[in-house]
């Protein structure tokens, strides 16, 4: 892994100097990729290793629609049978939405109903073909719809790696609609865990049992953390430290 040195800072409680290095947090249970705004690789751990994506996979669905010729004003009908948990569409009982709204909801609120409707409309194989042949991913595959844990147990899961994620985010952010959706993401307690200042963040989080992920661009720096079988607290702390590293901040403090 590429090292990520941080400055010594004073621990006022113990009256001694400490050095917190993100390398101390790395293991086979996580993947961390941090690239500064000027292109310097600050950390690269397991970036080609496949991890369960959780809702990070929605970035690749977004990329498919942005890179193909779709009418974003098209109105899509949504049946009651398609409505599932963790969805604004379900909570509000929305019977239809424009393609644009579905894409924004899928990213900004991680709406599972929106994601499944979008997978159904495009076709899972069409999206996977795009990922392989156009986006040229290494590990990413959409193997199931959202919340289909039966399929996951049978070995059909959504998988990605941070190398693929960065490539996908770059594509999404090259489109105005992609940038709008990523900038509106409501989950801001992971990479931004220890950051309280006014920063620019375009990203996507994901979480299912044993999986706690967050990726994005923070003030122009790419930050990605994928985890598996870490405690939720440890995974959240790793995300927060990665965010501090991306800003060049001391990793035993908060950014105000």
Polypeptide structure, described:
By secondary structure, this protein is an alpha+beta fold. Helices cover 34% and strands 20% of the residues. It contains nine helices and eleven strands. It has helices at 58-67, 88-92, 99-108, 112-122, 124-133, 149-153, 162-173, 176-183, 232-247; strands at 9-11, 16-18, 30-35, 41-45, 51-52, 75-77, 96-98, 159-160, 201-208, 211-218, 221-227. A hairpin with a 4-residue loop joins strand 1 (9-11) and strand 2 (16-18). Helix 1 crosses helix 7 (162-173) and helix 3 (99-108) crosses helix 4 (112-122). The longest helix is centred in the last third of the chain and has 16 residues, at 232-247. The radius of gyration is 18 Å and the shape is globular.
- What fraction, in percent, of the residue positions are helical? 25-40%
Radius of gyration, in angstroms, nearest whole number: 18 Å
Give the SSE order as H and E letters.
EEEEEHEHEHHHHEHHEEEH
In terms of per-residue confidence, which ranges show pLDDT below 50 for 5 or more consecutive residues? 1-19
Structural class: alpha+beta
With strands numbered from the N-terminus, the spatial order across the biggest sheet is: 4-3-11-10-9
Number of helices: 9
Number of strands: 11
Mean pLDDT: 92
List the helices and strands and how they pair.
Layout: E1 9-11, E2 16-18, E3 30-35, E4 41-45, E5 51-52, H1 58-67, E6 75-77, H2 88-92, E7 96-98, H3 99-108, H4 112-122, H5 124-133, H6 149-153, E8 159-160, H7 162-173, H8 176-183, E9 201-208, E10 211-218, E11 221-227, H9 232-247
Antiparallel strand pairs: 1-2, 3-4, 3-11, 5-8, 6-7, 9-10, 10-11
Helix pairs in contact: 1-7, 3-4, 3-8
């Amino acid at each position: 892994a590429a090292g990520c040195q941080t400055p010594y800072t004073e621990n006022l409680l113990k009256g001694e100097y400490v050095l917190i290095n993100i390398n101390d947090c790395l293991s086979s249970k996580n993947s961390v990729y941090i690239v500064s705004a000027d292109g310097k690789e600050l950390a690269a751990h397991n970036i080609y290793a496949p991890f369960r994506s959780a809702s990070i996979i929605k970035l690749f669905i977004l990329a498919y629609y942005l890179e193909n010729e779709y009418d974003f004003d098209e109105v899509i009908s949504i049946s009651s049978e398609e409505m599932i948990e963790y969805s604004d569409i379900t909570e509000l009982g929305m019977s239809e939405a424009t393609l644009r709204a579905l894409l924004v909801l899928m990213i900004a609120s991680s709406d599972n109903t929106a994601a499944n409707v979008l997978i159904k409309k495009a076709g899972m194989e069409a999206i996977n073909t795009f990922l392989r042949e156009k986006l040229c991913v290494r590990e990413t595959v959409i193997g199931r719809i959202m919340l289909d844990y039966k399929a996951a147990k049978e070995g059909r899961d959504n998988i990605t790696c941070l190398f693929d994620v960065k490539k996908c985010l770059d594509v999404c952010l090259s489109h105005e609609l992609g940038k709008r959706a990523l900038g509106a993401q409501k989950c801001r307690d992971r990479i931004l865990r220890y950051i309280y200042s006014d920063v620019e963040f375009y990203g996507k989080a994901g979480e299912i049992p044993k999986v706690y992920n967050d990726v994005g661009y923070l003030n122009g720096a790419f930050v990605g953390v994928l985890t598996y079988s870490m405690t939720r607290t440890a995974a959240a702390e790793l995300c927060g430290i990665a965010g501090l590293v991306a800003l060049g901040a001391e990793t035993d403090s908060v950014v105000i």
